[in-house]
Amino acid sequence: MKNLIALIVLVLLCVGLAQTSPGHVLLGDVGLYEQPASYTELAFTAPADLPTSLPTPNSPINVSFDIHNVSGTARAYQWSVVLTRNGQSHVKATGAVTAPAQGRVTVTKSVAMTCVAGRLQVQVRLASPAQSTDFWVTCPPAKQGAK
After folding, report:
1. Is the separation of the CB atoms in 50 and 81 below 8 Å?
2. How confident is the model at residue 137 (pLDDT cuts 50, 70, 90)?
């Protein structure tokens, strides 16, 4: 009976140790524990709703994106919305948000830039980890002068 109790106590101690950081290191050394994945997802909130063309040269562009923190701790993110036309980039909005562990935050901004003829790239960037996502919109054609 004493051996059974000693075995149960030993098992409980081992299980308790396995739940600690040193226990994770020991289990990792023998190949029995792997750190959980830690990464960030950046995506437009509703990709199907992104505009494909602008009705007027000064139309605001509504940008809504999600930052998903897939890690065990809260994380702060620096973001920016950049508009690029004809090779020239303009930062139109910046900010910071904190996403909780295993959490998601949504950022919504309305940005504008004069755009006549051609295309405009709308890009959302994260500073760290360095990530970006983008879409393109067609600018309205230039008005023809009256004859």
Report:
1. no
2. very high
What is the pTM (predicted TM-score) of this model? Answer: 0.74
pLDDT band at 21 (very low <50, low <70, confident <90, very high): low
**Rounded-to-integer distance, Cα 4 and Cα 116, Å:** 82
Res. 145 pLDDT band, cuts 50 70 90? low
Class of CATH domain 39-138: mainly beta
Q: Which residues have CB under 8 Å from 40's CB, separation 6+?
A: 67, 68, 69, 70, 71, 75, 77, 126, 129, 131
Rg (CA), the chain: 26
